[in-house]
Hints:
Blueprint: H1 12-17, H2 35-40, E1 43-47, E2 52-54, E3 62-68, E4 71-76, E5 82-88, E6 93-94, E7 105-108, E8 112-118, H3 119-128, H4 130-156, H5 159-173, E9 182-184, H6 189-196, H7 200-212, E10 216-220, E11 223-226, H8 229-239
Helix pairs in contact: 3-4, 5-7, 5-8, 6-7
Amino acid sequence: MNNRFPQNFEGPPAVCEGCDARAVSVCSSIGDRELHRLAAIATVVDADPGFSFITEGDPADHFYNLTRGTVRLVKLLPDGRRQITGFGYRGDFLGLAVSSSYAFSAEAIEPVRFCRFPRRSLRRLLDEYPALEKRLLEVASNELVAAQEQMLLLGRKTARERVASFLLSLDAKTTCVHRGPAIILPMTRGDMADYLGLTIETVSRTVARLKKEELISVPRSDTIVLLDREGLEDLAAGNGEGS
């Protein structure tokens, strides 16, 4: 696992001006005239797949705003197994720890770019910009809802319901990136299995079954097309048949 920060940092102000993730990130709560204040405390980092920029248990000294790419959020179990608790996408704000240490690790699964903010510096800005503080509270609330949905996903849903729910949530999350029914999967089937609490074989078998039922098509291993969104929504809601 690579957790050594790259050294090719870029100048934040120039990057902020051309950042296409601003509209979907916490930065949207700050006006153009004030954006330089946020940019001044940010370090912009480009990183390759496999790079870990948050490590579970480390001091929570920084916040991270993901502006490009996808990351997996991971917790290690006492026996060494990993549980993927979620995925981070463009516009997501990571590192809102409620304690002094991070509760999860964050690893790039494709080339990523993120802005890193010192915790103390950003907290000082929150006093000056209530809109930014409000947006961060919304982010924290959304994380709580996502955690509750994950508990339902793992505790009550069948394999088909889990995969259908995952595809719909991924489509909703990345709708600002792609257009049309096709979803590009940056994560592997193994990542999906670890997130859904299934085996790789079960994920692959379930995807194949959804394809046979003409709910989806799979033109490539990293692409899934939603053919019957209403059918998937019914399935995700528990209205389907069997596992």
